[in-house]
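**Polypeptide and fold**
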Amino acid sequence: MKAALADYDAAAFLAAIIESSEDAIVSKSLAGIITTWNKGAVQLFGYTAEEAIGQPITILIPEDRLGEEPAILARIQAGERVDHFETVRRRKDGTLVDISLAISPIRDSEGRVIGASKIARDISERKRAAEHQELLLREMHHRVKNLFAITSSIITLQARTAKTVMELASCLKDRLLALSRAHEMTLPTFTGADAFIERPATLFQLLSSILAPYGGDGGCRWTLNGDDVKVSAEKVTNLALLFHEFSTNAAKYGCLSIPTGKLVITVSLQDDLLTVAWAEVDAPQPVQKGAQLQPGFGSKLEQIIAQGLQATISREWQPYGLCIRVTVPRNALGPAK
């Protein structure tokens, strides 16, 4: 009697565990007919126990995966266990769900296989996260390759114009730092709710980063006015190099080279055309205009960037200093959203 009671208690305990499990635990006969169905299965697949028990297990299998069932039954009949089998199943409402299956033979008291027990776990979120991560890694790989290509071009162009090794090293360092700041702006976080989501970048954020070494916004050395726009990650690099050239020239020859000089940047968006007006105020007199244009590396780099952005760049000397106007199609900077 005690042994029978112990067996009963153990069976009841096991049944309670199965029923309360968050995983879907289902048993079926060797003919593929559902014989048990726990609450986890109700939550995962949408069918109640009354609706599922007595139905063929194929009610859960999409048509393009019906071939999986005979193969699984064959392995079960041979006494094999199937572990960590990832597949797709169909819910009652017709939607598909990614699951991981563990399938074990059910034996009678004489050891004969009489059915199968399936444990199914929803892995949809994990699959989406893995796909998102893979997509991000491919994008990061693409961007790193682009950065290496750009760096190689900068070294080649700069080597043709640098007069000394120190000049070459200094110019390369400055430009690589500008690229690094631009690249960092759009790097995603890798923890928390926003993991693997690329951070948005705007034109004002980029300009603020490039101009940060020359004093703060708000009337100190430089100000930003007008329409801020979003910039795609792949276009940030070109813009960073372009505005780095402008700011370097301003620091060497223009308004940022003297304590009283100021830089006023105005951005306007009209009819899907973006215009950036780079106006230097209280800059040194136009006697420096030849140096300001910096023929050689700077002009070659500017031409390459302008082609990549479909941009036009013009310069005009005003009584108060140099004014550079950059006009670029809005869609050349990436999606507006």
